[in-house]
Design brief:
Blueprint: E1 32-36, E2 43-48, E3 51-54, H1 72-76, H2 79-93, H3 100-103, E4 106-108, E5 113-115, E6 123-126, H4 130-140, E7 156-158, E8 164-166, E9 171-172, E10 175-178, E11 187-190, E12 194-195, E13 198-204, E14 223-230, E15 233-234, H5 235-241, E16 255-257, E17 262-263, E18 271-272, H6 291-296, E19 298-299, E20 301-308, H7 310-314, E21 320-326, H8 334-342, E22 353-355, H9 370-373, E23 381-382, E24 388-389, E25 397-404, E26 412-413, E27 417-422
The structure holds manganese (II) ion.
Length: 425
């Protein structure tokens, strides 16, 4: 597991203007991404304040080769080597080390194009947000919200990697089959119940060979970093299609991720104990149980969802916060997700992406989807400016944000995960 070192010192400052105290990317964060400028070749960078440093231009200064148009190779190296890279970047960007040569390779993040950080081989979405599972389960199965497997199995399904896009790429409202309760037969057409899902996602680092499970006490070494994930969902398609095999076209039309990879190393100060299970819940089976993971396998990250409608945008209004809550509302740790995924011998690859599933708080100010906030569409959410939403309208922009916070450390954020809904085609 990653350790706290000098790179996390809250007193550390940077020579890059505006980086100190930056809500997302102070020098204590140093997230990795892939960018391009004016249509040139995508290449790796590290974010610092509102700027990024082009790592391809300074590769001679770094202890690890960081080149190419994806971060898959960086994810694949041993965690100790990524820690060495982080220490070097922290040193190069810290106050007192200013150099005109380095400054020449800074770009304004607002002026570049951010790409997917890795070639995503496989995408798996879990369902570890227990309050979300309860809320949604109650709508589909009022008498039986949590199925008996939930507290034993980190439930997941295989998603679709091809339709994952970085923040800023609009999504097109999907068409599909839905069957209104009063109809005799299903209709085909644009989703009438388009929703977002607030999730964290894990970037897999080193993989495992087929047939070689990742033990729970080694799982953290296979996690390269984290991003935000909006797992857009067509609730009407989902209700009609999900039995007996689970999610399919309700989920695979588009997923949005924040383009910066917050490295596992950066999150060392924000590791916290997994909240104890409620009295009467079963202890995880032995292959998912590790004392160190229980002591430090959860993350002190605060998650938020904001909505900006077309009307609000036209009126110059700021996005409205729909919810806020802690990532601690996960019933399983990310290490348990990784270990369970590989427990049958399934091989994970560097750059695979694992979504946590929607993370909701127990109370409605922290519900992570409109399906929950609007009680399945029966109680529309009121917005400033007089509009209401049960589900998303064309022109709506959903913005996910997150910040890791811990007493005595500089908070670090993830950057925006946002996209606008375009009309169906
Ligand atoms: Mn999901």
């Amino acid at each position: 597991m990653t350790m706290i070192d000098d790179t996390h010192d809250p007193a550390l400052t940077s020579w890059v203007p505006g980086a100190d105290g930056h809500a997302d990317f102070p020098i204590q964060n140093l997230p990795y991404g892939i960018f391009s400028v004016g249509g040139d070749t995508p290449r790796p960078a590290v974010a610092i304040g509102d700027k990024l440093l082009d790592l391809s231009a300074i590769s001679g200064l770094l202890p690890v080769e960081v080149t190419g148009s994806t971060l898959n190779a960086l994810f694949a190296i041993a965690p100790e080597r990524r820690t060495a890279l982080r220490r070097k970047l922290s040193e190069l960007l810290s106050a007192g080390h200013h150099s005109a040569a380095l400054a020449a390779h800074l770009h304004d993040i607002a002026a570049v194009t951010m790409h997917l950080p890795a070639a995503i081989g496989d995408y798996t979405d879990f369902y570890v947000g227990i309050h979300h599972a309860n809320n949604i389960g109650r709508q589909f199965r009022p008498d039986n919200p949590l199925l008996p497997n939930y507290k034993y199995v980190p439930i997941g399904y295989h998603g679709r990697a091809s339709s994952i896009r970085p923040s800023g790429v609009p999504l097109i409202r999907p068409k599909g089959q839905r069957k209104p309760p009063e109809a005799d037969a299903p209709l085909f057409g644009p989703s009438a119940r388009l929703d977002y899902e607030l999730e964290l996602a894990v970037w897999i680092g080193r993989g495992n060979d087929l047939g070689e499970p990742i033990p729970i006490d080694e799982a953290a070494d296979h996690i390269a970093g984290f991003c935000l994930l909006n797992d857009w969902s067509a609730r009407d398609f989902q209700a009609w299609e999900y039995q007996p095999l689970g999610p399919f076209l309700a989920k695979n039309f588009h997923s949005t991720i924040s383009p910066w990879v917050v490295a596992a190393e950066a999150l060392a100060p924000f590791r916290t104990a997994q909240p104890p299970r409620p009295e009467g819940d079963p202890r995880p089976l032995d292959y998912l149980w590790d004392e160190a993971d229980q002591r430090g396998g959860a993350l002190a990250i605060d998650l938020e969802v904001h909505l900006l409608t077309a009307k609000m945008r036209a009126a110059g209004m700021t996005p409205h916060r729909l919810s806020q809550g802690p990532a601690a509302n996960m019933y399983w740790t990310v290490a348990q997700m990784v270990t369970h995924h590989s427990s049958n011998g399934c091989n994970l690859h560097p750059g695979d992406l694992l979504g946590t599933g929607t993370i909701s708080a127990p109370t409605e100010d922290g519900f992570g989807s409109l399906m929950e906030l609007s009680r399945g569409g029966s109680q529309p959410v009121k917005l400033p400016g007089g509009e209401e939403r049960s589900f998303l309208s064309d022109g709506d922009e959903v913005i996910l944000r997150a910040q890791a916070r811990a007493e005595g450390y500089a908070p670090i954020g993830f950057g925006d995960c946002r996209a606008v809904v375009l009309p169906a085609r």
